[in-house]
Every structure is written in C-alpha cells, then in structure tokens.
Design goal:
This protein is α+β, with helices and mostly antiparallel strands. It is built from eleven helices and nine strands. A hairpin with a 2-residue loop joins strand 7 and strand 8. It is elongated, with a radius of gyration of 25 Å.
Length: 306
C-alpha cells in the first residue's frame, strides 16, 4: 500500500467534494492513484463534485468588497442564474472577497489555497458548495486596487444583495482631501465605468494591437487620400477613439458636457486637495465565456423518441 499523504487527501477532496476519510480510504484502496481514487469514489456514490467539474459555469455573481483604502472585485461562477440567489452561494462569494481584502493577493490559485473563514481552504469551500448545491462552481478571476491615501469607489449593477450583482466596478482615487467628497466622486465614477465600459484609464494603457487595428481601419476607409492627408485623418480618428474608450477622456455620464478628467480636477478643489484617478476594474458576469446554446424543445423531442 502506498504512503498516502495529507496533500494527496486534500487534492482529492478538492477534486471530488467527498469527505476527508472517504478520500483517504479511496487513496488507500487505489495505491495513491488520484484518477483511480476519483473513479472509486464515484462508484461508491461518494464523489459529489467531480461529475460536475466539466460543466460550463457562466452564471453566478460578481462580488465587491472595500475595506479602508483597498477594494476587491471577484467573479464567482455557477451554472445557472438560480444558484446566484442561493444564500450559501452568496455567502461563498462574499467570504471570498473578504479573504482577498485580507491578503491583498488576487491570484486565483493563491486565493484558492488561502484559509477560508469557516475552516479549510477557499478551494475546499468551493468544493463543499458544489457538493451541497449540486452545480459546478469556479472562482474565475479577482482584482485588487489599493491607494496610499484617498478612497476606493465601488458600484454593483443589478444588485441582488449588498456587494453582489451582475456587474461590479471599483475605482481608486488618491488624495488627502475630504473623505465625503472622495466617496461621492468614487461612486459616481464607478457608475460611469459600469455604463460606459472604458478599455483603459488613458491612451498610453491601451493595447497596441487594438490601436493598430483601429488605425488600419481608418487607413483602409481613406485609402484614396494622399499619404500626408491620410496620416492626419488617422491621427484625428484615433483621438476620437480615445474619447470613446479611455476613461479620463470619456464624457462623464452624470455631466456629459465635461470629461471624467475635468470632473476629477474640479473635485480636487472641492475636496481641498488634488485628486488623482489611479485605476479602475470592471467585471461583467460571464463576459468572454462561451456558453453552450441548447434547444430545449429539440432535447425534449429527442428524449421522447428514445
């Protein structure tokens, strides 16, 4: 019989959601072979999570948490929107952001290995929820913003509970000015980000490949123009593009006659100290995840023929 270690038991438990002793027994019975142990647990009806781990989890919640001058946003996915209203799943999402606020580390693997408030690790808590609720769940991504002095603005769109919803935004304002002014400004800018979906804070932070693609589109649309004119058209077109996708250059949704950078500068006068918008993070639930399309009527029809 192979030497079964605590790390092996932990790994198997995270993969299956089965109890600790069941995992240890499975490893003993299979000479420490993880994959064979998973099959052993499934045959015994003890593996609750493994069968669900390959399902697409594109629903769930975006969670935000702010503590002092640190803000966190995380996306915790489930298979169905129904689970997002489950109190245990909501507690899981809130606790995960609490863990990240405490450590300041947004690396997903590091978060999963971190201690969970109710005991064990975050990964074990996720596995336990999979086993209890019956759906695949994942911690997809997380981000942290910190400022030395100032405030973190936060906003949740389509909120179903405090700090939980479909779109989550945090923004970092650095200033020694009035806390009340900064709090109000931070929330308004976070709301703006949720609505306007900027790609970057300023032009220098835009992906060079994205800029080149925009420039090529402008060149192709104006290919008949002389070279010297064409380059001026491209330059002008990119400036317009910056106003559309760069947060500081965008027209502020609460006051469209001014840009976000102008609003921030004015806030500095009201706050009694200069204000710098240092960064933002916007997570929209499920963005970028390929969801399998299903034809419910066709599924029912096919089942009736079998």
């Amino acid at each position: 019989m192979s030497n079964v270690t605590a790390a092996m038991v932990k790994d198997l438990r995270e993969k299956t959601g089965a109890g600790m002793m069941d995992c240890k027994n499975a490893l003993n019975e299979t000479n420490g072979d993880i994959e064979a142990a998973i099959d052993w647990l499934r045959k015994k009806g003890l593996s609750k999570a493994a069968k669900k781990s390959d399902r697409v989890a594109a629903e769930g919640l975006v969670a935000i948490s702010v503590k002092g001058t640190r803000g966190v946003v995380a996306e915790v996915n489930s298979e169905t929107d129904f689970v997002a209203r489950n109190s245990d799943f909501q507690a899981l999402a809130k606790n995960i952001t609490g863990v990240i606020v405490g450590t300041g580390n947004s690396d997903v693997e590091a978060v999963k290995a971190a201690a969970y408030p109710a005991g064990g690790t975050v990964a074990e808590a996720i596995a336990n929820n999979i086993a209890t609720i019956g759906e695949n769940m994942t911690l997809r991504r997380a981000a942290v913003l910190d400022v030395n002095a100032g405030a973190i603005g936060a906003y949740i769109h389509n909120a179903i509970s405090d700090g939980l919803g479909k779109i989550g935004v945090i923004v970092a304002l650095e200033s020694t000015g009035s806390a009340d002014v900064l709090a109000d400004l931070g929330r308004k800018i976070a709301m703006h980000v949720a609505a306007a979906s900027p790609l970057a804070l300023e032009a220098s932070q835009l992906d060079k490949a994205v800029l080149e693609r925009e420039a090529n589109v402008l060149r192709e649309k104006n290919a008949s123009k002389p070279t010297n004119v064409l380059e001026k058209i491209v330059e002008s077109g990119l400036k317009t593009y910056y106003k559309e996708v760069c947060l500081l250059d965008q027209a502020f949704i609460h006051e469209p006659s001014k840009t976000v950078s102008q609003i921030v500068a004015e806030a500095g006068k009201t706050a009694g100290a200069p204000v710098a918008l240092k960064g933002f993070v916007r997570f929209a639930l499920g963005e970028g995840i390929e969801k399998a399309e299903s034809d419910f009527a066709a599924e029912v029809a096919s089942m009736s023929k079998s």
